[in-house]
Specification:
This protein is an alpha+beta fold. About 30% of the residues lie in helices and about 30% in strands.
Length: about 240
């Protein structure tokens, strides 16, 4: 069985990891904006929050830059299209796959030769959704969260949530179609590698109370890159 190589890229956008400072350069901002297609530009202009707009802009610029290196083209020549299920795919190549996620603390994306899905979430997000897991999950998953130790309920909720979101991105379907059927063969009681049908789930806790999950064909072989000053540097992990 061949390994599924997956390259995962991380950039923090918190005060301690000011990744958005990349856009302080007028030249860099113009370059990033020039890489947005018509639909992306419209979405970018609709953001009311400057941080949300900049995170959206930088995420797509960095993703397209990374893809361009593998495709041997310019970042502005990287084009996406949306398939019927809502999954974004490359117009440039059907042999290269990607998945992108960002929140108020980080931008994370993955690139692979295989179909993949990725999600990152802030466990400290407002609203405390983990207190009502039955609203979001199947009875089996909700019961596992409720019956877990109160000290770990929040983290366990986001292990399941990122896993479900990553699966949605992998298969290109809506989350409402999946959430009532989503279960795992074993409880997501810890970070690590889990099996879901014929796919692997890698769930990992990151710095700044972030939770990450990546989905792809088994066995997954991840390589991690973290933004340091002027570029992505290969690292052992993102914890």
């Amino acid at each position: 069985m061949l390994n599924c190589s997956i390259y995962i890229y991380y950039l923090g956008v918190t005060e301690s990891e000011p990744g958005l400072a990349l856009l302080d350069s007028k030249l860099k901002r113009r370059q990033a904006e020039a890489c947005l297609d018509h639909a992306e530009r419209n979405r970018y202009q609709r953001f009311r929050s400057k941080k949300s707009a900049d995170t959206f802009l930088l995420a797509r610029y960095l993703l397209k830059t990374a893809l361009a290196k593998k495709l041997r083209c310019q970042a502005c020549d990287v084009d996406f299209y949306i398939e019927d299920g809502g999954k974004p795919l490359l117009k440039n190549s059907d042999a290269l796959h990607f998945s992108l996620s960002h929140c108020n603390k980080a931008i994370v994306f993955a690139i692979s030769d295989n179909n993949i899905g990725l999600d990152v979430e802030d466990r400290d997000r407002k609203g405390s959704p983990w207190r009502k897991p039955q609203t979001f999950f199947s009875e089996q998953v909700a019961k596992d969260i409720v019956n877990s130790d109160p000290d770990v309920q929040q983290q366990r909720f986001f292990r399941y949530w990122t896993a479900m979101e990553a699966l949605v991105k992998w298969q290109g379907s809506g989350i409402f179609q999946l959430r009532q059927q989503f279960t795992t063969a074993e409880p997501l009681s810890h970070d690590g590698v889990f099996q879901f049908e014929e796919k692997s789930l890698i769930t990992q806790s990151l710095k700044d109370a972030l939770q990450l999950c990546v989905v792809g064909p088994s066995p997954l072989l991840p390589t991690f890159y973290e933004w340091r000053q002027q570029g992505f540097i290969k690292v052992d992990s993102l914890t």
